[in-house]
Specification:
Layout: H1 6-22, E1 32-38, H2 57-64, E2 67-69, E3 72-73, H3 79-88, H4 116-122, E4 126-132, E5 159-163, E6 175-176, E7 179-180, E8 190-192, E9 222-223, E10 226-227, E11 231-233, H5 245-259, E12 265-270, H6 292-313, E13 320-326, E14 369-372, E15 381-383, E16 387-388, H7 392-399, H8 416-419, E17 429-434, E18 436-441, E19 444-447, E20 470-473, H9 489-505
Parallel strand pairs: 1-12, 1-13, 2-15, 3-16, 4-5, 4-12
Antiparallel strand pairs: 2-14, 5-6, 6-7, 8-11, 9-10, 13-14, 17-18, 18-19, 19-20
The structure holds 2-acetamido-2-deoxy-6-O-sulfo-beta-D-galactopyranose and calcium ion.
Length: 510
């Protein structure tokens, strides 16, 4: 061992472990890994999951050349907690302050914690994030004109190009590594989530200046003709143009792939589509009959195609493991008048599932999940194994030969055999978060539902809350139409106790 440096040692280790795991006769080289994470894309929003009002040939190609999951989940029905779980392998509800964050929130992940990028970096990968972050930045009171940290770099990414929070929240600027892109020091940026800056125009007072009007909320500062959540002033040279965000992000992703095509890389690509405000580039306007929401799906698909093309051109398509999913279920009107409701037609964003974004019902967390890895994952296959994005950490750690201590990523389970389609066995149980918690176990789903409102006050999505716990038979009633709690009180009781136990024990990996 003395003649090996640490990196060579780790490489040999991961090759051996991967070979053992996959049962291959010869050592398996470590693939590049790309995780494409769509925003608010529902189970039924892409054609390989049944959509017919929109065509998504590039996303579909991942299914045709790989494995399509039918019971895969985001850990939460909203963005921040789902992303927190992907990054840390810990259920977000274990940590306070992991709900939807404002754009000036501090980083919610402890830089000393194991993260998905830090594990892969440890395995010798070059790691990058390009896209929507929404996990907070800095330690509080960010000065947007200085170095902004801790953030993605401190969590294990070698390169970062991000939208700090969401496209509908200020500041409407990109950050590259620690700095705002294109910032003119003579025009410093200030951000507030409390009050407008003197002289700043708001959507509330000046609706005549808007190219897209809000339907609920989103009536604060006007940036690029769209009123947002929050207030900002300055930084004029840094402001993004909404219609160019997909081009900018996919260009950065392409560059990252090109620059790292000669050694293993991990690219986390959390796309901004199809979150509001939906303002796809004019190249995509009118590509569907569903208005901006449908056209944004086409734009997302184009970005996926661009990434796939780049892999082909670099000659690394074969040795790249691609995972595609979404951070939470779908929403139609999420705060802007963008014709999504009027033009929905027969399209079913959540497929057969009930509810959507924000909901305890499966529409909130059951999302597309596709895995492609040429020669390792059988093309055109489908799996009904129960998997969750929280399992990527332990699974990819295993793939790359990294071991986790008991307390690391405490809810992430190594599902590599299921994720690569070698086993039909997924998780035994899963906790889903949507304000309240639900427990899925085998064919049962128990929604604790101990929150007040039955409907989201803005979107009117059914939240699945009720005064008493609900029980659904996922096998007989996947659309959660018949609450059978009254017929099976002993199952409800057992599942409530199990959920309490998962909560109090601080970990759930067996
Ligand atoms: C909600 C916003 C919604 C969206 C969501 C976050 C209002 C009324 N609604 O509070 O538009 O921004 O937060 O979405 O402001 S997520 O996908 O990042 O979780
Ligand atoms: Ca989202």
């Amino acid at each position: 061992m003395v003649w090996m440096n640490r990196r060579q040692f780790l490489q040999s280790l991961s090759a051996t472990t991967a070979a053992g795991l996959l049962g291959a006769a010869k050592p398996v080289s470590r693939p590049n890994i790309i995780f494409i994470y769509a925003d608010d894309l529902g189970y039924g929003d892409v054609s390989c999951y049944g959509a017919t009002s929109v065509h998504t040939p590039h996303i579909d190609s991942l299914a045709a050349q790989g494995l399509r999951f039918t019971d895969a989940h985001a850990t939460s029905a909203t963005c921040t907690p789902s992303r927190y779980s992907v990054m840390t392998g810990q259920y977000a509800w274990r940590k306070k302050g992991t709900g939807i964050l404002p754009g000036d929130a501090p980083l919610i992940i402890d830089p000393h914690q194991i993260t998905l990028p830090s594990v892969l970096k440890q395995a010798g990968y070059t790691t990058g994030v390009v896209g929507k972050w929404h996990l907070g930045l800095g330690n509080g009171n960010i000065d947007w004109n200085e170095e902004i940290k801790p953030g993605p770099i401190e969590l294990g990414f070698d390169y970062s190009f991000i939208i700090p929070a969401t496209p509908d929240r200020v500041p409407c600027v990109f950050l590259e590594n620690h700095r705002v892109v294109n910032l003119n020091p003579a025009d410093p940026i200030h951000v507030s989530y409390k009050a407008p800056f003197p002289g700043e125009l708001t959507g509330r007072d000046h609706p005549e200046l808007l190219k897209m009007k809000p339907s609920h909320g989103h009536d604060m500062d006007i940036v690029d003709g769209v009123s947002r959540i929050g207030y900002m002033e300055g930084g004029k040279s840094s402001l993004w143009i909404d219609e160019d965000i997909a081009d900018t992000l996919s260009t950065k992703a392409v560059r990252f792939i090109e620059q790292n095509s000669h050694h293993p890389f991990f690219l986390y690509y959390p796309a901004h589509d199809i979150h509001v405000p939906r303002l796809p580039n004019r190249r995509f306007v009118g590509k569907t009959k569903m208005g901006p929401r449908g056209d944004a799906i086409v734009e997302l698909d184009w970005c996926v195609g661009r990434i796939l093309d780049t892999l082909e051109k670099q000659g690394i398509a074969q040795n790249t493991l691609i995972i595609f999913s979404s951070d939470n279920g779908p929403v139609v009107d999420d705060g802007y008048h963008d014709q999504a409701v009027e033009k929905l037609g027969t399209h079913k964003p959540a497929g057969i599932y009930r509810g959507g974004k924000y909901s305890n019902f499966d529409g909130g967390t059951r999302v597309p999940f596709l895995v492609k890895w040429t020669d390792h994952v059988k093309p055109g296959t489908t799996s009904s194994a129960l998997v969750d994005q929280i399992d990527l950490l332990a699974s990819l750690a295993t793939l790359t030969g990294q071991s986790l201590r008991n307390d690391d990523a405490p809810d992430s389970i190594n599902l590599l055999p299921a994720i690569l389609g070698r086993s039909r066995t997924g998780r035994q149980s899963l906790v889903e978060e949507a304000g309240s918690l639900s427990l899925v176990e085998g064919k049962w789903k128990m929604i604790r539902g101990d929150q007040e409102s039955a409907y989201d006050r803005y979107t009117r999505i059914e939240l699945g809350n009720a005064p008493d716990p609900q029980l659904y038979d996922r096998a007989a009633d996947p659309a959660e139409q018949h609450n059978v709690a009254a017929a099976h009180p002993e199952i409800v009781k057992r599942m409530l106790a199990q959920l309490d136990q998962i909560q109090s024990s601080g970990r759930s990996r067996p």
